[in-house]
Amino acid sequence: MKRLARGVAIAALIVPIQVTAHHGWSEYDSSKVLKLTGKIVESGYEHPHGHIRFEAPGKTWQVTLAPPSRMENRGLPKEWLKAGASATVEGYANRNKPEEMRAERIIINGKTIELR
Among the four residues 55, 103, 110, 114, which has the most C-beta atoms within 10 Å? Predict the structure, then answer.
């Protein structure tokens, strides 16, 4: 019984951390679609969302992608997001962070991958 109580207490501590780590999509301006072509400078393929630092003409963006499981299931392997790879990203800019955007899709290696 003591072991079960400890497990419940640990779970109660972990769940709020995971919930607060995820952000809402309302912070992105879905009224203006961005379509940027450029190069990946850096990438991360981890939870809760993958991400790339993306250099487009005139600006470097922090781009929020989908969760890794979704990207993998839709045909976007981690290896495609390597530094130096060319891509086109379509999505929405963050309302409060002008260097950040949320990607709806990415076109890379001749393939369009829907991320949402």
Answer: 103
The Cα–Cα gap between 11 and 18 comes to 11
Question: Sign of the CA dihedral 27, 28, 29, 31?
Answer: negative
Q: 96 exposed, middle or buried (CB, 10 Å; 0-12, 13-18, 19+)?
A: exposed
Range 82-98 average pLDDT:
97
* pLDDT at 32 (0 to 100): 94
pLDDT, tens digit (0-9, with 9 covering 90-100), for 23-62: 567 899 999 999 999 999 999 999 999 999 999 999 999 9
**Which amino acid appears at position 9 of this protein?**
A
Cβ count within 10 A of residue 29: 15
109 burial via Cβ count (<10 Å: 0-12, 13-18, 19+): middle
| Segment (H or E) for 116 | none
pTM score, whole prediction: 0.78
